[in-house]
Amino acid sequence: MARPRMKFANLDDDGLKKLTALEEQMGTLILAVEPVYPLAKLSDEQIKRIQALEEELNVVLLAFQ
């Protein structure tokens, strides 16, 4: 079984209030997650390549080290 790379963020009261306010303003649900492993440090070119694939696949991609 794959190990999780992201987990739900543990927001403090102020952060949760800000997130809730934004959800209400936008009329949508927003999930706050944080990496379990460090995110990869990418060059501008690598970021562009990932963004292009995100668009093509209609997904969100996250790169980890």
Topology:
Blueprint: E1 6-8, H1 13-26, E2 33-35, H2 44-57
Antiparallel strand pairs: 1-2
Provide structural commentary:
The chain has helices at 13-26, 44-57; strands at residues 6-8, 33-35. With 65 residues, the protein is mainly alpha-helical. The model has no long low-confidence stretch (mean pLDDT 94). The chain has one domain. Strands 1-2 form a two-stranded antiparallel sheet. The protein has two helices and two strands.
Work out the helix count: 2
Question: What strand line-up does the widest sheet have?
Answer: 1-2
In the predicted model, the low-confidence regions spanning at least 5 consecutive residues are none
Beta-sheet strand percentage? 5-15%
Assign an overall shape. extended
Strand count, sense and closure of the main sheet?
Answer: 2 strands, antiparallel
Secondary-structure element pattern, one letter each: EHEH
How does the helix and strand content classify structurally? mainly alpha
Count of extended strands: 2
- The radius of gyration over CA amounts to 15 Å
Fraction in helix: 40-55%
Please report the distance between the alpha carbons of the first and last residues. Answer: 19 Å
Mean pLDDT, to the nearest integer, reads 94
**In oligomeric terms, what are we looking at?**
single chain
Overall domain count: 1
Q: What would you say about this model in short?
A:
This protein has 65 residues and is mostly helical. It is built from 2 helices and 2 strands, in the order βαβα.
